[in-house]
Structure formats: structure tokens, C-alpha cells
Amino acid sequence: MRIDIVTIFPTFFDVLDISLLGKARQSGLIELGVHDLRDHTHDRHRTVDDTPYGGGAGMVMKPEPWGEALDGILDGAADPVVIFPSPAGEVFTQSIARELAQEQHLVFGCGRYEGIDQRVFDDTAARARVRLMSIGDYVLNGGEVATMAMIEAVGRLIPGVVGNPESLVEESHEDGLLEYPSYTKPAVWRGREVPPVLLSGNHGAVDAWRREQQLARTRAVRPDLLP
Ligand code: ADE
Fold first, then answer.
1. Which residue's alpha carbon is at the smallest distance from atom 7 of ligand 1?
2. Which residues bind S-adenosyl-L-methionine (predicted)?
């Protein structure tokens, strides 16, 4: 998969060199391009924002640098999906992560300040699939943290990125429920025992217990996930 990111903070994405995603890049499963929006300004101050038409607080990102940056990425690209992180977007979920993991090319446009001139979305939507995506009902200072979260969630679903694909199946949200609690050795720690069923060797009983735990947890903290 090819991933391009447009941002005014390119060094923010240096951490994509490490961990599972860093390995995926080294092995060629993920190809990453990070683009500095300010490289597409043409004034002495490298200006990317201006005051909003109609008045109001804050600044709006100017369309010209965005247009030029996205032209450079999209011209000649084969059917990319362009994602603009935004608290006004659809909510990013595991099922959207699975959808995006099937794509060949994702482009993330990280806005800052009060947002990006609307015409950038309209112009991009005229030549590519565009999705505004929120990572939750809270406000961040910009799209960078949201982009990192989405890249990690999508990247680990690309075949070969996570060593043991079975570990993807049993985790929170994959089956619509929260994960069951996990235990490892020792069997007693600070007087706290591992639930005996997990030491029983009875796989049917273990599966049933885990399912019960998933349901109880989901009912307690995320009843909205239950049918
Ligand atoms: N930018 C600011 N807040 C955001 C959020 N919650 N999700 C995605 N992008 C954002």
C-alpha cells in the first residue's frame, strides 16, 4: 500500500520509522511519502492560512498550497482515497479500517487551525474519492494525531504486517464485542489468582468463559455495541 501525508509538521511522522509499521516499510509492504504543505507556498513567510471570509475567530487554511500539494500526489495516481481528518467527519471504526486496508493508495490531508477552505474538499472530490473522518467526539488541534491513529489501525490489517494473523481475529471490535481479560504466568501474583477455568485445559469451558466475559464487559461499558 502507498500512503501519502500532507502536513505542516512532517517530523511528526518520524515515528512511523519504528515498530511494526517501520518494519512494514522496510519490507516494502507500506510505502510512505510525507509532504510539507509549506513547500507549496510561494511567499517569503510560507503562509498557509488566512482570516475567514464572513468573519469569526481563528484562521482558515488557504486553498492554493493544498491544491498544489494534492496535484503533485494525485496526478497520475490510480484511484486513491483521500482522507481529511476532521471532527466533522464520519466516525472512523474498525470496519472502516478493514475497508481502507483493501486500498492501494491512501492520502491523508492534515488540516490545522479552524479548518481548510471548503473548495479544497470540493476540488479534490471532483477527481478522487474523498472521506472526512473523525476519530471520536472530541477536538484535537489538527489532523496529525488522528492520521497516526488511522494509519496504525489500517496498517496492521495489511496482510503480513502483523506476524500472527490470528491475533487480529480475537481482539476488541473485530467481532463487535470488547476483548476478554488476559492472564499469563505466574498463576498467583500478589495473592491474586488466575481464574481456574483458564488452567483447566478444557477448551470448550475456556471459550465459553471468554465469551461470557466479553458480553459482561461490553454490557457494562459499551452497551451501544450490543445488537
Ligand atoms: N481534527 C480535530 N479533531 C479531530 C477528530 N476528533 N478526529 C479527526 N480529526 C480531527
1. 134
2. 111, 135-140
Binding-site residue numbers for S-adenosyl-L-methionine are: 111, 135-140
Nearest protein CA to atom 2 of ligand 1, as residue: 140
Say whether pLDDT at 172 is over 80.
no
The predicted model scores a pTM of 0.94
pLDDT tens readout for residues 87-96: 999 999 999 9
SS (H, E, C) the chain: CEEEEEECCHHHHHHHHCHHHHHHHHCCCCEEEEEEHHHHCCCCCCCCEECCCCCCCCCEECHHHHHHHHHHHHCCCCCCEEEEEEEEEEECCHHHHHHHCCCCEEEEECCECCCECHHHHHHHHCCCEEEEEECCCCCCCECHHHHHHHHHHHHCCCCCCCCCCHHHHCCCCCCCCCCCCCCCCCCEECCEECCHHHHCCCHHHHHHHHHHHHHHHHHHHCHHHCC
CA of 7 from ligand 1 middle (Å) equals 14
Whether ipTM > 0.90 holds is yes
Region 190-218 average pLDDT: 98
The CB of 134 under 6 Å from ligand 1? The reply is yes
Q: Domains plus CATH for the chain? A: 2-165 (3.40.1280.10), 170-225 (1.10.1270.20)
pLDDT tens digit string along 95-128?
999 999 999 999 999 998 689 999 999 999 999 9
Task: Return the ligand 1 atom nearest residue 111 CA.
Answer: 1
